[in-house]
Amino acid sequence: MTTSGYEAVIGLEAHVELATATKLFCGCPNEFGAAPNTHVCPVCLGLPGSLPVLNRAVVEYALRFAAALGFRVPDESIFARKNYFYPDMPKDYQISQYEEPILVDGSIEVDGVHIGIERAHLEEDTGKTTHMGGGGRIHEADYSLVDYNRAGVPLMEIVSRPDIRTAEQARAYVSELRGVLKALGVSDVKMEEGSMRVDANVSVRPVGTEAFGTKVEIKNMNSLRSLGRAIDFEIERQIAALEAGERIVQETRHWDEADGRTHGMRTKEGSSDYRYFPEPDLVPVAPSGEMRAAAAAAVPELPAARRARLVADWGVSEADARVLVDVDGLADFAAAAVDALRDGAARDVANWCTGDVMAHLNETGLSIEVLPLAPDGLAELVGLVAAGTISRNQAKDVLAECLRAPTRPAQVVAERGLEQVSDTGALAAVVDEVLAANADAVAEYRSGDDKAKKKKRGFLMGECMKALRGQGNPQLLNALLDERLA
Amino acid sequence: MTDGSAPITRADVEHVARLARLALTDAEVERLTADLAAVLDHAADVAALDLDGVPPTAHPLPLRNVLRDDAVRPSLDRDEVLAAAPVAEDGRFRVPRILDPS
Q1: Pick from A51, A172, A250, A280: most CB atoms within 10 A?
Q2: How many Cβ pairs closer than 8 A exist between chain A and B?
Q3: Interface contact B29, partner A, CB < 8 A
Q4: β strands within B1-102, DSSP E
Q5: A318-334: buried (b, 16+ CB within 10 Å) or exposed (e) per residue?
Q6: Rounded to whole angstroms, how far apart are CA atoms A90 and A434?
Q7: Domain B10-48 falls in which CATH fold?
Q8: Tens digit of pLDDT for each residue in B14-58?
Q9: If we measure between CA atoms, which residue out of A457, A471, A478 comes closest to residue A421?
């Protein structure tokens, strides 16, 4: 934004659904897509006399996240009631953490920059409301229907510091955070399915000044792409307002994917006086040294380290390493193929994965586990190219067939008779036949200038390939032709 | 909320009542303003004590880490649940219009 004389200051709040078997405070299943109100019990419905009990796995997941990103875990954290009247919570309050969150002061490195994370706290998700009548919009609806299956599902809210400056950096932060959470196995982090939701606090200030401008919270972005678009729109909107001499109003705005704009909500709804107070039904959480140590031991290799290893060990580019690590299961698939490799380079395996295999996944919407191609099949394909049995172009066709139906590359090569002729004796015989049958062309080659030489040589090479039905090893054929025509 | 002389005003009580969705009569607001002032006086007595070095009490019970295993337990029968709702529709709780159309 330097061209306009302004810079943006962005902080992100990510709400992540934790992938536990049960809800935060009761034994109801934490499962997406069940029939409405079939995963409810006295605790998550807030029936009188019921008492919440914290899920141990949630604490373990939070501690694992803390170990991964260097958070401080205070000796004790407590839960609070956030009071509000809205039918998405049957209790008329949400149990959250307010003054004493479970994790504070972490950070994550994004493209060489450390983005601070102020805190991460635990809270329960709300139910799902569907507005009936008035086109499904809350303001025009006649009434609403509520499904409480999601009420009480464990959420971790991860609040960044206002260290982000551009929409691109915001996307990269979320992408890196997602990768870490996925590697830790604590969440599915699918923005499209709502298991990760990100709100952004955006303000702008003249370049070179320190004081923050008035911030606006934007919500309702359900993909990385819409997060980036919404932030860019909001930055431009605020700069335009300031340039026009207007003041920025502190408010919450909704992103509308369809019109590509943010829209202010009615200010009345924005009044937030939640009257937090300590939740009397829950005692403090004080993670023991054992729990902390177990969580630290459960941290696997994180995406940044894995990317660095792929770059160093396989010689792939940083961008390709990112694709391999970001796409579910792709790096594991490639690693298994590399392990099965007898002939050929790891880098070739990676290139097929980020190229043709990725293209196939994108085209079909399939995930890598359901492909008919197994990692050792890809290793076999790379081996066939490395041994000169088939050319790279033929390998593309063979791979395409192996991605469609269960078969093996060697079998496809045999069935289609694709095997490349690499027997020097056989190739030499063909070259000699072609040269004998095209004596005129050979003579013109010998007497011609560079241009004529090139043309005639191309013709003779084509005749050789034709005789070999396109299956001659091109490197060997070229060498033989050069030898004979010298 | 407090200005020294009057620990709590009628306006404060009306504000809190609105947040809690309580419809109070004038007489009730009057009585609660006095009652809540007495409660706040008591809080002021506690606040006046020298509590340096006394950790805040988050909970009266001397317990930490009451946790349960992440194991699924049966949920309630939906028909039974929805039978307790004033109105249900399509397997869900039916609630009145959430926002004023104004």
Answers
A1: A172
A2: 135
A3: no
A4: 67-68, 88-89, 92-96
A5: eebbbbbbbbeebbebb
A6: 86
A7: Histone, subunit A (1.10.20)
A8: 998 988 889 999 999 999 999 999 999 999 998 899 989 888 888
A9: A471
